[in-house]
């Protein structure tokens, strides 16, 4: 799974359209929540309370959040609502139906990915983990176009300096002459499918660049963006700048429909928010059911049994797994999400540990069948105690592994040599213990000819 533009972001932080039914929306009062201590509480990454800071930023009175800070709306809960705000920063985020600081629904903007299919990301937060690799397009990521500010133009004669690696002195000098200062530690990246950029690790400054007929234009993504989100039942519609047509719709919010709190987030760099308002909406008959979400094919493995967590012994972990599997009756039955994904963070919170998932496959004869799968962060696959696969990502996947650092079921494949009768497929799965984001898997059989899944 290759990572392109995420190299500089994730190293540091390590993230037909269906509109919601808007019954009586025009009759719902809009409540503005000014950024002051009466309405908002600021929390630091360690959970301590900080002071609220109001600044004038690019023409707007706004609240500023430092990296990792959160702003919680005090003593207010919402179930079905429309929220609007302006935001400015690299990765602004919005939490809703917050049950506690570690469990909520989450939407964030990848400002650097303007115009791409992953410019918007929805992910459910369980136990404080941000599983961006697990929840992918088209269901959980969407396109959006964000404004960008031109900050410098340099001559086309310097195009040969825009190569991956350490930024050249001539490039840095040309930018400095335009009033843009990057340190000697800066580097350039030119990914195949994402915006090219220059990044300064010393100042955490980044600029995109585009080559035009009249020069090389450098762009700052930190400009004001108008965002609206409508949440009804299990659905969310997201509007960016155009407040009439949603650019992204999520049909299957994962935390259910309980009312909860509202929060604002900064994941990377300073983030500014202004003009925050909410109007409650009537749900009407929009409560979704299982029939509202497209059902997956029956060859997905959706029923698993999960072990307790254990500290993986890097040398003897197969013996650890085998010992656990001898007591399979003590495993807990779990079900995958409706799309077949198993997010271990739903069940456990410590990504320094490992679990065993096992599932029963019954075959009418000896036969071979392909197993398609994917995972984060390290996986060993066993069939009837025989090792079939052993691979890991260590947060940054190998260049030849799959698609853009995401978990897609078609990315990996192995062959199961089934015996007649009952077979036990086991996944020994370790979490992303470096960044504490991703811990999960997905699997399906190529076919079910003569095969049944429990």
Notable characteristics:
single chain; about 450 residues; mainly beta; 8-stranded antiparallel β-sheet; globular; disordered N terminus
Largest sheet: 8 strands, antiparallel
Number of strands: 33
Span between termini: 31 Å
Using only CA atoms, what is the Rg?
Answer: 24 Å
What overall geometry do the principal axes of the alpha carbons give? globular
Contiguous helical run count: 3
Helix content: under 10%
| Broad structural category | mainly beta
Question: Would you kindly provide a brief summary of this structure?
Answer:
The chain has 454 residues and is mainly beta. It has helices spanning 6-10, 169-177, 317-325; strands spanning 30-32, 40-43, 49-50, 54-57, 60-65, 70-73, 81-88, 92-100, 103-109, 120-125, 141-142, 149-154, 165-166, 187-189, 197-200, 205-212, 215-220, 225-232, 235-240, 248-250, 261-266, 271-280, 303-306, 332-335, 342-343, 354-363, 367-376, 378-383, 386-392, 412-418, 421-430, 440-445, 451-453.
